[in-house]
Amino acid sequence: MVAAGAHRAGPLKQQNKAHKGGKHRGTAQRRSGGRVSVKALPHRRRRDLNRVDRRHQALQLRRQRKEAVLAEKRSLGSRDGPPHLVVVVPLHTRAAAHDALRLLQSQDSAVVHVDERKAGSFAILCPRLKQRWRFVTAQAGDLHAVMDLAKVADSLLFVLDPVDGWDSTGEHCLSCLFAQGLPSYALAVPGGTDVPPKKRIDAKKKLTKAIEKWFPEVKLFPLNTEQESSVLLRHLATQKQRHLAFRDRRAHLLAYAAEFVPSQESDQVGTLKVSGFVRGQTLNVNSLVHIVGHGDFQMSQLDAPPDPLSLNPRVVKGQKKSQDMDEDSANGTDEMEEDVKILMKADTSKQESLQSEVVPDPMEGEQTWPTEEELQEAEASQKENKRVVKVPKGTSKYQAAWIVDDGEEGSEEEDDDDDDDFGDDMMEEAVSQGESSEEEEELAEEECETMTMSECVRDDQYDEKVEEDEEMLEKYKQERMDEMFPDEVDTPRDVPARVRFQKYRGLKSFRTSPWDPKENLPRDYARIFQFQDFSRTRKHLFRQIEKEEAEGASVGWYVTLHVCNVPVSVMESFKEGKPLVLFSLLPHEQKMSVLNFLVRRHPSSSDPVRAKEELIFHCGFRRFRASPLFSQHTSADKHKLERFLRPDTALVVTVYAPITFPPVSVLVFKQRSNGMHDLIATGSLLAVDPDRIIIKRLVLSGHPFKIFTKAAVVRYMFFNREDVMWFKPVELRTKWGRRGHIKEPLGTHGHMKCHFDGQLKSQDTVLLNLYKRVYPKWTYDPYVPEPVPWVRSESALPGQEVEME
Hints:
Residues 1-37, 302-335, 347-388, 400-444 are annotated as: Disordered. By secondary structure, the protein is an alpha+beta fold. It is built from 19 helices and 33 strands. The longest helix has 25 residues, at 51-75.
């Protein structure tokens, strides 16, 4: 019984939730008492270890990584591994690279092998340290040589000027190397004794501050004495190696010697015997090999000649002196044919094919007999589509079918070239005007006369590039107009809009409306290869490389490759001193497909770059020329075309090119009229995906003529009544955010009554969006001309370069 004065809880009393104890894993384990459920434990539960086991596992992983790093350091440059390849890159014209190489060669208890074929190339063998190095010099002005050597180099040795560090050519070279991917590197500063003693400290501080832009927290190595050269060599041998993913998964080598054997049919094509040390992965003779800058080839045989840079000279029997050996290897000859062992010969049943394109069969489509229902539908559609045509008397039905109405004269398909969509799109003139223009031309030719003009040398030299300046000015105007009025075009007045834009369609929503990726594909898509699942194929290949042991020449072996059907120009380039770099290809990497690169505009590039211009691509170990498309980088299934390479955002570049498995770095260059290559964009390979839908948008604009509460009369979007009726289903929008649709045409001059979701402003603009899928041009060319080396003149203005002779 409750007392009369006791407090009772009301209906609004706060009710707190009870504590849910025993829900976490520890309590559940204690309550289970060690009992295990009948079902098998998932993998995630198996990985749940206690505290001590987690510590042991972390310790084991740390020890494994440490041992892997130490093993890599010990194998590089040792007896069982390839020589430590060091590429010397002088970054300044005043950099004393010759003095640096002389000091590196003057090592005690070391044997130096000088390669007389190429200046600045030599090998150092140090039996006491059980190390061997190979040094190759590349000039910063020779862009292709520097980038090709950096693809296979173990370390880069940058030689700086003690006062300025690097010049404009060296800075351009550094930009390209950082975009491609840098291996391990070191900075050497020879010639410091030439600086006056009072200015050495200030010069060193200035140089240290200057290199922080590219190399933060990197030590400078002075190179003036033999002791300092020994310190630099020790640093190169012991520093941690930086990995480049595209070369670690592929076998590659730098040619040490080469010999060309012409074929019986022609002297221009033959077998190229390339000797060098295998790096990266095991080299299989049945795989294809890519010679950088020259194309893909097959191998017929792998030989194992004696190692010319052996730390133990007793391994090679009957060897002459080292100088004679270097001369013989430089000339590509081998005097010890009896010591050459054949490692592998190509198996035709397992050898990769050189086929890069699919040969389309125009009769490949399956022809089936139509059913009765389809025949009835065809007859009904023919009855509906019957038209009345005025024909002369005596005309048969067959002849009448070829007579064209007045409304069908402009129904021919437009050219697929989309370079004329910037407001100045005009169709060809009528045939009637063509006859009069020919008569005017004949009269103009009769009235013209020839005159001899005096020439001024200075004026001609000054006005050599006037046409280029005018073209560049036009590009600047088009880029500016595209920024101010994106995708807007003028409706042509001499051609009906329904004919001019017959390949375009309207979309309810660009983001959510469906678009079939297999619809109306071009003929070029019949020539390419496509993966059912590209990412799955890529993972499967990489998993095979990591786990399975391939047959062939192991890493570190000195081998000779017999490359078949190689043009003689490859050997001529090697004799001129150009580096000869070979990469083995993964399966399918010789086949053509659609590659998508994710790039960003380089800060040094400011000139407008229009879509479908021919550009030069350095994609991993390949370089080629192509005409790309630019599109937005979004997560949607449709991507809007960009007409110019934007400087403020990342874009996707789409080209036809051979398949390459990412990760791979990409550099985009543009060639000038004088042969120089300008770096305009850098990035990486996004995916190999022909189904990426790139949509080109056109915007037709009109102006409100009369404005009502929720309606308006719009003009200047179309100029005839039929066009208004044709585009009536497409939704309208305005620049101020209103949505609407066409209600009916007014008159015969293109005025139309439109309904909107609100009242328009007098300064608003009515827009109509049209869309079409576009594809890149097939302009793939694997042969890229050598760039002209350039330096910046001291008297030249910023942005003006002077060509080197």
